[in-house]
Every structure is written in C-alpha cells, then in structure tokens.
Amino acid sequence: MLSDEPKVNGHRPSADVLFRSVAEEFGNKSVALIMTGMGDDGAEGLGAIKRAGGLTIAQSEESCVVYGMPKAAVERGYATRIVSLEAMSNTLFAHCMVERKVEPVPGGLGVAAGARKV
Predict the structure, then answer these.
(1) Which residues fall within 8 angstroms of residue 58, CB to CB, at 6 or more apart?
(2) What is the per-residue pLDDT across 74-103, written as a single tens digit (0 to 9) for each?
(3) Neighbouring C-beta atoms of residue 19, cutoff 10 Å
(4) Closest Cα partner for 33 from 19, 51, 17, 20?
C-alpha cells in the first residue's frame, strides 16, 4: 500500500519496506531479488526475508549496470544466491518447480502436483 509516511533510506516507495512486509506476510515462502541500482535500499529488507527463511537473490556484479543495491545485500550476507541477469528467470522458475513440486510436461512449463488441468 502506498502511503505518505516519511521516506525510508531516502525513498518512497522503499524496497526495504516492501521486502519487510513480504517477510512478515509470507515468511519462509518469500522470494525476493535485488537488482541493479544505486544505494542500499532493499538490503535490510532482503535480510528480513532471509531471516524468515525465504529465498534471497542478488544480481551478479558482472551483469549489473550499477552494482550498489546488490552489493550492499551481498556484503551484509543477505543474498542466498548471486545470479546473473541472464540466469535470473531460470533460477526463479527452478525454485518454483521445487517449491510447488511441479512435474515437467513435454512442451509446457509444468503442472503442480495435484493440480487439475482445465
């Protein structure tokens, strides 16, 4: 929810606020990634998700235009994985397949175990 509350880390909206609320709401089912950007907004929020048991991903330095935000998260030990931009979608997809016990379907993305085809 957007608000007129004071800025956090000089930002409104703030990635830290977003990630903290995700950690509180979804706990160990949370997934967050922090990508190219200046400053350190999002680093502490990523830490909240990691402490809650969620998956935290930082974009690799080599694939960033500006390594500020991912660097802050990596240096603080909040990134569970460091992934290139090119590998980001496959990393997220693989995580979701494992978490939801998705069975691969030839020619398709998969069907969650127990899901009904329509």
Answers:
(1) 33, 34, 46, 70, 73, 74, 78, 79, 81, 82, 83
(2) 999 999 999 999 999 999 999 888 766 655
(3) 28
(4) 19
Instruction: Give the integer Cα–Cα distance in Å for 54 and 112.
Output: 20
In angstroms, the CA 8 to CA 104 distance is 42
> Alpha-carbon distance 74 to 60, whole Å?
9
Could you report the per-residue pLDDT of 43-64, keeping only the tens digit for each? 999 999 999 999 999 999 999 9
Which amino acid is it at 22? V
pTM for the full predicted model: 0.77
Side chain identity, residue 21 = S
The helix (run of H) or strand (run of E) holding residue 57 is: strand 55-59
Q: Which two tokens stand for residue 111?
A: 């069907």
What lies within 8 Å, CB to CB, of 12 at 6+ separation is: 3, 5, 6
Per-residue pLDDT tens digits for 25-45: 999 999 999 999 999 999 999
